[in-house]
């Protein structure tokens, strides 16, 4: 007797028509046919069943603040940072919590159950930290929320940046962040990387650093981050987010840099939606795409995962909490349209991100947590193409969200009466 069985699901690795049995909040059977009863059954009807999506890079303290106190007219990263500086004094704990919880509601319906959010620690009031710590506790039954102490205005550049970051960590924020390219000088950026890695080593914490989010090919703080990771023995516990300057670096330098990153076991987090929106702003034509060298980094064996970064905030007026939208953009930006390419992109939204976030019990193997989604698509290739509805979302074996299939009604003579884009247009690869 199982608590729940998902019947007739297709798995991300290509296996079709499998049942998944759940007991005590964990996966206890994955078989072609489970000859048993369950308290509840979900018929996947030949749809894709996947572990939930993970977002390893987001800014939940800024989400849904679009237009407060004004819009980003230039659309640039620097105006976004300036605008956030105008908004920050207006922030209240209550408003921050309300916006974050609204975002989490949407995330659950999108099958996004694991999120790592950066928390701006530049304001000594630390109202952002207080609010997001409250949100982390409130959403714990249905979303695993990790928090990064992020000195948005610079660890050295902000008047109380260093002290505020330490206080945020003392409050319970559990990851060390940084933004070396926003310090006053290249040398201060280098020193901030060293100081922050030392803090992480002393406290036994991971590192997730905004690194080289610029078009400047001479912004090379990822080199320092990799070296300090090795120096402090932090291999596998450090993430470099964005790394957009690598798009503009010369190939010889990158041929030295990538092996150093691999030696340091750096987790790489590009943010395709934001990278394409904010980078190349000073270019005329040809105009740079901005996203880091995803294909080359993957080929070198680095763990690459994709983040959403923003939704309806000073930097990005778009967004829908849909990680498939992120993967869809990554396919275009990285020009990874092949079948195996797309499999790697899907991994970057799921298993790779789970590795970046240090998750345990994640996946579809027996013994894993029964955190699962059923999508209105037959396989991962179609999921990335269609960005389909999440028919069922399960957390610990309990259904926490459900969305009806998207079916179009057609009123055309001698043609079908309905269209299911997730089933009627499946190519045979």
Automatic annotation (TrEMBL):
One of its GO terms (biological process) is cytosine catabolic process. The keyword Metal-binding applies. Residues 40-400 form the Amidohydrolase domain. It comes from Paramesorhizobium deserti. This is Cytosine deaminase. PANTHER family: CYTOSINE DEAMINASE. The keyword Membrane does not apply. Keywords: Hydrolase, Metal-binding. The lineage of its organism: Bacteria, Pseudomonadati, Pseudomonadota, Alphaproteobacteria, Hyphomicrobiales. Signal peptide: none annotated. Its EC number is 3.5.4.1. GO terms for molecular function: cytosine deaminase activity; isoguanine deaminase activity; metal ion binding.
């Amino acid at each position: 007797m199982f608590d729940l069985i998902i019947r007739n699901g297709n798995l991300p690795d290509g296996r079709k028509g499998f049942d998944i049995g759940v007991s005590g909040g964990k996966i206890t059977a994955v078989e072609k046919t489970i000859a048993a009863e369950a308290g509840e059954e979900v018929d996947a009807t030949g749809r894709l069943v996947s572990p939930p999506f993970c977002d390893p890079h987001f800014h939940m303290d800024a989400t849904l603040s679009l237009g407060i106190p004004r819009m980003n007219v230039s659309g640039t990263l620097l105006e976004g940072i300036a605008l956030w500086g105008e908004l920050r004094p207006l922030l209240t704990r209550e408003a921050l919590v309300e916006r974050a919880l609204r975002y989490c509601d949407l995330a659950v319906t999108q099958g996004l159950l694991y999120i790592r959010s950066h928390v701006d620690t530049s304001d000594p009031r630390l109202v952002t930290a207080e609010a997001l710590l409250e949100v982390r506790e409130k959403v714990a039954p249905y979303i695993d929320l990790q928090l990064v102490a992020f000195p948005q205005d610079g660890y050295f550049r902000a008047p109380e940046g260093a002290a505020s970051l330490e206080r945020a960590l003392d409050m319970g924020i559990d990851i060390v962040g940084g933004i070396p390219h926003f310090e006053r000088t290249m040398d201060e950026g280098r020193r901030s990387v060293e100081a922050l890695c030392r803090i992480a080593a002393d406290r036994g914490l991971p590192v997730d650093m905004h690194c080289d989010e610029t078009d400047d090919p001479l912004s090379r703080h990822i080199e320092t981050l990799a070296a300090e990771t090795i120096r402090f023995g932090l291999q596998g516990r450090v993430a470099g987010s964005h790394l957009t300057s690598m798009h503009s670096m010369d190939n010889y330098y990158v041929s030295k840099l990538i092996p150093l990153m691999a030696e340091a076991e750096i987790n790489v987090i590009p943010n395709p939606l934001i990278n394409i929106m904010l980078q190349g702003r000073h270019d005329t034509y040809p105009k740079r795409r901005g996203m880091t060298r995803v294909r080359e980094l993957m080929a070198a064996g680095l763990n690459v995962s994709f983040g959403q970064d923003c939704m309806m905030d000073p930097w990005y007026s778009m967004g829908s909490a849909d990680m498939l939208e992120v993967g869809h953009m990554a396919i275009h930006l990285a020009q990874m349209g092949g079948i195996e390419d797309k499999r790697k992109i899907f991994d970057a939204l799921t298993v790779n991100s789970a590795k970046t976030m240090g998750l345990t019990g994640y996946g579809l193997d027996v013994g894993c947590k029964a955190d699962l989604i059923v999508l209105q698509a037959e396989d991962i290739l179609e999921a990335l193409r269609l960005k389909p509805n999440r028919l069922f979302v399960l957390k610990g074996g309990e259904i926490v969200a459900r969305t009806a299939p998207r079916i179009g009604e057609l009123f055309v003579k001698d043609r079908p009466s309905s269209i299911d884009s997730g089933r009627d247009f499946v190519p045979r690869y």
